[in-house]
């Protein structure tokens, strides 16, 4: 009877005081400040794409056309010379046959024995002219630079306008290249079971392998052509290795379609990377962030305020970039509720409404909201409080991530005079 009473008491305590903290993923866009803002800020920019290899393409095409013309000229010349060469061969043959026919039979036999060969004249062969084959050059792919620039090269926070004295944003394509494909084989052990007996055997697997890259450089300059930013990203200069899925049959060595599709994708990826680098340096980049927000799921209305704050913050974050004033209002509403709840925080009291777990969750929620509102002063206070709490490893990693995040934010705010 006493044991049953104890169990009931524990169950009631767990029902009343137990905190069920839930985390929900949240994805939103915010404006990231540049590391090197332009002062004064230009009104506009214009982006363009050029390809250094186009000059090389022109040279190869010019050489190809010249060789084709030379091959045709040689063919026509040889064709015109053919009758004369044929007549000369006929005349020479007739002359030699006349001399040979004038010899006696005995003389012919004697010459044949002495020379050990048939000494009868043979008509000289005159080859028919043919057009020499000239292989087409392997050109770098040409692109519509204007369309690519308008699609991929955008500096957030500036207007893209041509020719009004703004900044110039130029990406130079160096050309997609790849090594020849090779087939790589690998022997693996496999096992088969038959009649309860396990047998190991060797199986050869094959895959296709080659390396590729598309180097690019970027230069940003002002209206006076003074350089603002230049970069030749090392990751674009290095060759990457492609490996096909291994199979038991040897793959085809024809990679033309594969490299064509790969080239198109690499072009987009590299331009996207470069555009991010430029925006990070001077732009006000609209950046996607993935994070989490916590709330407490409990019976009754014990934590209704925290659910209200969660809903307001979640909505506010997702409204950023669409209706910023309303978004900030919602975020501030959540901040107010969470700070009010923290007045009840009792970290050492496991039965408290705002116990250690709930307190830490509120702290992380506030850090997320302070990040988007750039409130580094209040964020520092929370990080200081978190440093005083014995946190599990997961929360320690989250605290360190926020510490790094706010260090970067402070650096950017300082660079922007905020």
Please give a structural write-up:
The protein has helices at 2-17, 53-101, 105-115, 145-152, 234-237, 256-282, 304-319, 324-342, 356-372, 376-388, 393-415; strands at residues 20-32, 44-51, 159-160, 167-173, 177-178, 182-194, 197-213, 216-221, 227-231, 240-243, 285-297. By secondary structure, the protein is α+β, with helices and mostly antiparallel strands. The strands form three sheets. A five-stranded mixed sheet has the order 3-2-4-8-9. The longest helix has 49 residues, at 53-101. The chain is elongated. The model is unreliable at 1-17 (pLDDT under 50).
pLDDT average, as an integer? 90
Q: In angstroms, what is the radius of gyration?
A: 40 Å
**Helical region count?**
11
Name the beta content range: 15-25%
Backbone structural class:
alpha+beta
**What is the general shape?**
elongated
Number of DSSP-assigned strands: 11
Adjacency order of strands in the biggest sheet:
3-2-4-8-9
Low-confidence stretches: 1-17
| Distance between the ends | 68 Å
Summarize the structure.
The protein is 49% helix and 22% strand. With 418 residues, the chain is an alpha+beta fold. β8 (216-221) and β9 form a beta hairpin.
Jot down its keywords:
single chain; 22% strand; alpha+beta; 11 helices; elongated; 418 residues; five-stranded mixed beta sheet; four-stranded antiparallel beta sheet
């Amino acid at each position: 009877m006493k044991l049953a009473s104890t169990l009931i008491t524990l169950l009631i305590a767990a029902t009343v005081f137990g905190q069920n903290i839930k985390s929900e993923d949240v994805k939103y866009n915010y404006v990231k400040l540049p590391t090197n803002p332009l002062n004064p800020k230009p009104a506009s920019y214009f982006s363009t794409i050029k390809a250094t290899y186009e000059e090389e393409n022109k040279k190869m095409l010019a050489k190809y056309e010249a060789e084709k013309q030379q091959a045709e000229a040689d063919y026509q010349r040889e064709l015109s010379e053919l009758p004369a060469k044929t007549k000369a061969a006929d005349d020479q043959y007739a002359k030699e046959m006349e001399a040979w026919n004038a010899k006696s039979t005995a003389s012919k036999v004697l010459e044949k024995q002495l020379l050990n060969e048939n000494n009868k004249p043979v008509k000289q062969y005159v080859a028919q002219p043919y057009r020499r084959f000239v292989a087409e050059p392997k050109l770098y792919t040409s692109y519509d630079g204007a369309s690519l620039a308008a699609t991929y090269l955008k500096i957030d926070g500036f207007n893209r306008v041509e020719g009004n004295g703004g900044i110039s944003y130029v990406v130079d394509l160096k050309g997609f290249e790849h090594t020849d494909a090779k087939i790589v084989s690998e022997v693996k052990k496999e096992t088969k079971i038959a009649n309860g007996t396990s047998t190991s055997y060797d199986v050869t697997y094959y895959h296709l392998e080659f390396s590729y890259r598309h180097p690019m450089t970027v230069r940003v300059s002002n209206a006076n052509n003074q350089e603002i930013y230049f970069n030749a990203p090392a990751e674009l200069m290095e060759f990457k290795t492609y490996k096909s899925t291994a199979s038991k049959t040897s793959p085809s060595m024809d990679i033309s379609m594969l490299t064509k599709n790969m080239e198109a994708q690499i072009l987009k990826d590299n331009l996207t990377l470069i555009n991010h680098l430029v925006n990070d340096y001077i732009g006000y980049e609209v950046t996607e962030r993935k994070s989490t927000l916590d709330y407490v799921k409990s019976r009754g209305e014990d934590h209704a305020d925290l659910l209200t704050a969660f809903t307001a913050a979640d909505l506010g974050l997702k409204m950023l970039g669409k209706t910023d004033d309303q978004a900030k209002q919602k975020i501030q509403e959540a901040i107010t509720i969470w700070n009010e709840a923290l007045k009840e925080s009792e970290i050492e009291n496991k039965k408290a409404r705002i116990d250690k777990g709930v307190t830490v969750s509120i702290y992380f929620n506030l850090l997320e909201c302070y990040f988007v509102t750039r409130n580094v002063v209040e964020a520092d206070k929370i990080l200081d409080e978190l440093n005083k709490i014995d946190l599990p490893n997961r929360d320690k990693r989250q605290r360190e991530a926020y510490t790094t995040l706010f260090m970067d934010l402070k650096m950017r705010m300082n660079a922007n005079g905020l």
